[in-house]
Each structure stands twice: as structure tokens, then as C-alpha cells.
Amino acid sequence: MGSLFRRPKMPPMPQVELPDESKVPSAEDAAREAAEAEEMRRRNRKRKGRRSTILTEPDLEDEAVKLKKPLLGD
User: Fold this and answer.
1) Which ranges of 1-74 does DSSP label H, i.e. alpha helix?
2) Rounded distance, CA 45 to CA 22, Å?
3) What digits encode the pLDDT tens for the residues 7-40?
4) CA–CA separation, 39 vs 37, rounded Å?
5) CA–CA separation, 42 vs 47, rounded Å?
6) 0.70 exceeded by the pTM?
7) Which residues contact 42 (CB under 8 A, 6 or more apart)?
8) CA-CA distance, 40 to 38, in Å (whole number)?
């Protein structure tokens, strides 16, 4: 059957035109940095986690931390 059909020929690859560097916007500008800093501040305000749930310092706790498991007979 291989002799009945020919392999399809691949069309030539199109030439890629690179844009002019003067028309490409810069990723390092003051407005973008200010917007990213503001978004980071907003995210940090909304962040919930271990730091926001523990309201006391470890020095102010009543009991020492118990690391041993109790024995069943005691």
C-alpha cells in the first residue's frame, strides 16, 4: 500500500518578522512598579494565616507546650 500513496509534502515555513524594538513597551517602568507594589500591599492586608490567628506572644502563654502523649493507664 505504501507504493500507492505518496507522502504529503510539508509547506515551507513562513518567515517571522520581528517587531521594531522602539515600538515594544518596556516592562520596567515606574507606573508598573507602583501598581505591583500597591497590589502586594493589598494582598498582604488580606492575608490570613498563622501570624494573624495567634493573638498572644509565646512568652504570655499560661501553660508550657506538652510534647509528650499521655499514657493510657495514667
Assistant:
1) 30-46, 50-53
2) 38
3) 889 999 999 988 787 877 777 788 888 999 999 9
4) 5
5) 9
6) no
7) none
8) 5
CA dihedral 27, 29, 33, 36 (to 10 degrees): -40
Residue type, 32: R
Amino acid at 43: R
Output the CA torsion sign for 25, 30, 35, 41: positive
pLDDT above 60 (res 74): no
Longest dimension (CA), the chain: 89
State how far the Cα of 36 lies from the Cα of 16, in Å rounded to an integer: 33
Determine the residue type at 37: A
- What is the per-residue pLDDT across 49-58, written as a single tens digit (0 to 9) for each? 765 566 666 6
